[in-house]
Amino acid sequence: MIVDLLGRSRPDKPVFLKLYDRRFAEQLRRDHGIDPWTTDAENEYIQAVQTGATRQFLHNLHTLPSFEDDTWDTWNDGQFEAFLTVQVDKLFDAETAVYDALRDIQGKLVPRLIASVRLAVSPSNASVGCADAAGLLHVKGILLEYIDGFSLAKVQDHAPRSEWQGIVDQAIGVVQVIGDHGILNRDVRPDNFIVQRVGNGAYRTFMIDFGLARLRGRDESDRDWAKAKLNKDEEGAVGLVMKKRLAREGFELRFACSDRFMEWAGGDDESSGSVRSEKSKTIASEGPSHETRH
Which residue ranges are recorded for the region named Disordered (predicted)? Predict the structure, then answer.
C-alpha cells in the first residue's frame, strides 16, 4: 500500500508499505492448502500464543525431523496460523537480507529500503508473558521508495513499440547485476519489474519482490552456485516470457540466454546444457510457476 510519512521533509513523496501478514497471504495459503483466514482461527491462534502452546509447537516444528509431514493432518487452525507466521517471517528475512546486499544499487535498479517496521495486530487485551511470544502477535513490514510506473508485463499497454526491446534488455541487465551481487531469485517474472517513465522518452526499470530470493552460501562452490543459477534461468524467466508475450503483439523480441555461468558449472558437461535447455522450455511454455507444498 502507498502511505505518507508524517514529519518528512518531502511530504509529497509517498512510500510503499509492504506487510508480511499471514492473515491476508492468499497465495501462500493456497500453496500450502490452508483455508482462508477467519476470526475463529485467529482467536484460536491468540489463545495458543497466550498459553505457550504455540511456542512448543514451533519448537517441535524447528527441531523434530519430519514433524511437519508426520503431523500436518492433525493440526488445528491455531497451529496452521503459527506455521504461516513462520513462513511470512522467512519471506521478510529473505527480502531484508537481499536489500541489505543490494545497498549500492538501491534507488537505481531496485527501490530504496527506508525502514523495517513491526505492527501489533492483536487485541489490546491479548497479553502474553514474554517478548518472543509477543512477537508472534505482530506483523513485520518494510517501507520502500515508491516507484511510480507500470509492470513490465504490461509494457505493450504503456510504452511505444519502439521502446519494448530496450526496456526488456534493461530488465535482463538488472537480473544480471543482482546475480553479480551473489543473489539467486526463485521469483523472477515480468510482474516483478516496475518500469518508470523518466522524461525525454526514456525509461528506467526496477526489480521488486525478493521474498523468494537467497544469498549465495558462504561455502557454496562456484560449480554449485553456477548450477543453481542455470537451473533457475532467471534471465529466461524475463526474456523468454516477454518474447512469447510480445510475439502475440506481432513483435519479435531479440533474446538469447547468456552463458555467464556455463564455464563455472562445467560448460562442456552435457548435463549443464541439458539443465538450461529443459528449464528454458518450461519457462517458455508455461511461464512462471508458484512454489507448492507436496
Answer: 265-294
Whole-number Å distance between alpha carbons of 108 and 178: 12
CA 279 to chain centre: 20
CA-based radius of gyration for the chain = 21
How many angstroms separate the CA atoms of 244 and 183, rounded? Answer: 26
Instruction: For domain 150-286, give its CATH number from 3.20.20.70, 2.60.120.280, 1.10.510.10, 3.40.50.300.
Output: 1.10.510.10
**Tens-digit pLDDT profile for residues 64-99:** 999 999 999 999 999 999 999 999 999 999 999 999
Rounded distance, CA 206 to CA 227, Å?
A: 26
Q: What digits encode the pLDDT tens for the residues 99-120?
A: 999 999 999 999 999 999 999 8
- Domain map (residue ranges) of the chain: 2-145, 150-286
pTM for the structure as a whole? 0.85
